[in-house]
């Protein structure tokens, strides 16, 4: 079994007001974002990760380093970059409604098919996310084959590596993560903005059987942000 623990980077100085923060503005998380990442680190303190994979963008890499507690072990994969918002990069939703309202309203209806001006569509992101998951699951199957071989040839007779649970931490971005969930759960990418939420430094977990494909994940935990709230706050944030 492969357990993919998914989270979004922490807050940045451009998180509010809400805007399209994609690939071109590569900024750090702020102090609040670092506190969020540290809260998730404490939440996952008892979990050992076999791999930590992050978007190469700085806000994700910094979050991953805090959550994992071992920055030297982080792998960066460009397929985990946020959606390329093109000309909409850095624009708040209110600004876009005023400056490019017709195009934005059309995109909101069909974000899977329509590209942001000069950027990507949801389907473009889904293709790179699918390739990432395919490679991740292929690597897991190779690891399992090696583990089974070692177990079978170990002193004391053959045994099985079946049931071994590997855990991978993936740190990326709001839209990217929601589209990854659409792929993993075989859900229509068109509705990624309506069907899923990915708060900063949330806890989401997916399980993949050893023979599973990229679209055969099982949702274990979705957008759990309990670690970011006080004891009197509702657990759904």
Can you walk through the features of this model?
This protein is α/β, with parallel strands linked by helices. Helix content is 37%, strand content 14%. The protein has a single domain (2-85, 126-228), classed as Rossmann fold, CATH 3.40.50. Strands 3-2-4-1-5-6 form a six-stranded mixed sheet. Helix 5 (122-153) crosses helix 6 (174-184). The chain is globular. The protein starts with a strand and ends in a 13-residue tail after the last strand.
Which labels suit this protein?
237 residues; alpha/beta; Rossmann fold; 6-stranded mixed sheet; 14% strand; globular
List strands and helices in order, with pairings.
Layout: E1 2-8, H1 31-43, E2 51-54, H2 58-68, E3 74-76, H3 93-99, H4 101-109, H5 122-153, E4 166-172, H6 174-184, H7 192-195, E5 203-208, E6 218-224
Helix pairs in contact: 1-2, 3-4, 5-6
The gross shape turns out to be globular
> What is the radius of gyration?
19 Å
Number-wise, the strands total 6
What is the string of helix and strand elements? EHEHEHHHEHHEE
Instruction: Report the sheet-strand fraction.
Output: 5-15%
The main β sheet shows up as:
6 strands, mixed
The CATH superfamily bears the name: Phosphoglycerate mutase-like
């Amino acid at each position: 079994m492969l357990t993919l623990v998914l989270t979004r980077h922490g807050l940045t100085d451009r998180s509010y007001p809400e805007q399209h923060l994609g690939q071109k503005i590569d900024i750090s998380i702020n102090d609040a974002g670092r506190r969020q990442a540290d809260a998730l680190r404490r939440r996952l303190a008892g979990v050992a990760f076999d791999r930590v994979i992050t978007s190469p963008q700085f806000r994700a890499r910094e979050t991953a380093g805090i959550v994992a507690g071992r920055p030297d072990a982080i792998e960066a994969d460009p397929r985990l970059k946020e959606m390329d918002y093109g000309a909409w990069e850095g624009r708040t939703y209110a600004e876009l409604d005023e400056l490019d309202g017709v195009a934005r309203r059309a995109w909101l209806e069909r974000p899977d098919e329509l590209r942001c001006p000069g950027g990507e569509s949801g389907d473009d992101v889904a293709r790179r996310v699918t390739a990432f998951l395919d490679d991740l699951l292929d690597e897991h199957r190779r690891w399992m084959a090696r583990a089974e071989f070692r177990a079978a040839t170990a002193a004391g007779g053959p045994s099985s590596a079946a049931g071994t649970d590997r855990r991978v931490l993936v740190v990326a971005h709001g839209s990217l993560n929601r589209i990854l969930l659409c792929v993993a759960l075989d859900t229509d990418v068109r509705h990624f903005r309506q069907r899923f939420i990915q708060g900063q430094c949330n806890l989401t977990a997916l399980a993949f059987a050893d023979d599973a494909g990229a679209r055969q994940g099982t949702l274990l935990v979705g957008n759990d942000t309990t670690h970011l709230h006080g004891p009197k706050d509702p657990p759904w944030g």
